[in-house]
Q: What sequence folds into this?
């Protein structure tokens, strides 16, 4: 009987939970859709597939190769990012801009707030399996989207870059050189102290020899005096 009485309550609670989860899921989906709506993807011109080569911004001429898009954030332009696409699912992004950003990041490192290419625990770019539509046909590709570096990113092993490692090596070498110099100076002081001790010891030996000579002379004088008295 208790089970029968509690059953409607359990059904009501379960229904409320399902409705609540459904509402939360709907809210999350709506939030994601809203965030997507605020971002506009605009592809940059490709140097080798551009009918208006001479009219293209010169900046693009030296920077763009492959499929690269700018994700414009309509609400906050500072949150706009770059997205790099591969040609297919068997390759990875290879634009000149991507290579340039990655090279500078690996060389010089980055700080919190910088725009970076996300890296995994091995220092490799984080590629995402993505989908593009070309001429009405969907195809799978890989993509990498830049991000704003967080404190966690800065605490990673790759935030200082190769130059940072080189600087650390120079600092270490400088510390070793300073230590060796201090050791050399200490050894010199020890040598000087030993020399001073040797000189002092030699002087003491000379004084002892002189004292012994005086003692011998005194003994001789005493014996001579005793002989004369006798």
A:
């Amino acid at each position: 009987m208790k089970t029968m009485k509690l059953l409607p309550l359990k059904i009501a609670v379960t229904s409320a939970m399902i409705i609540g989860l459904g509402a939360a899921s709907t809210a999350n989906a709506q939030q994601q859709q809203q965030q997507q709506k605020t971002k506009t993807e605009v592809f940059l011109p490709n140097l080798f597939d551009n009918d208006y080569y001479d009219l293209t911004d010169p900046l693009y001429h030296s920077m763009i190769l492959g499929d690269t898009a700018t994700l414009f954030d309509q609400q906050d332009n500072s949150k706009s990012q770059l997205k790099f696409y591969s040609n297919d699912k068997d390759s990875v992004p290879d634009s000149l801009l991507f290579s340039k950003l990655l090279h500078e990041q690996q060389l010089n490192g980055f700080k919190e707030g910088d725009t970076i290419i996300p890296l995994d625990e091995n220092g490799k770019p984080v590629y995402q399996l993505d989908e593009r539509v070309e001429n009405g046909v969907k195809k799978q590709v890989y993509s990498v989207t830049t991000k704003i570096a967080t404190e966690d990113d800065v605490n990673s092993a790759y935030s200082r870059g190769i130059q940072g490692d080189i600087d650390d090596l120079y600092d270490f070498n400088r510390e070793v050189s300073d230590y060796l110099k201090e050791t050399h100076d200490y050894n010199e002081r020890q040598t000087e102290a030993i020399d001073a001790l040797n000189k002092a010891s030699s002087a003491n030996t000379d004084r002892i020899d002189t004292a012994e000579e005086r003692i011998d002379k005194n003994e001789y004088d005493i014996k001579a005096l005793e002989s004369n008295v006798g």
Observations:
- Confidence is low (pLDDT under 50) at residues 1-21, 23-29.
- The two ends are 145 Å apart (CA to CA).
- Strands lie at 39-43, 67-73, 81-85, 115-116, 128-134, 137-145, 147-148.
- The first helix runs from residue 2 to 37.
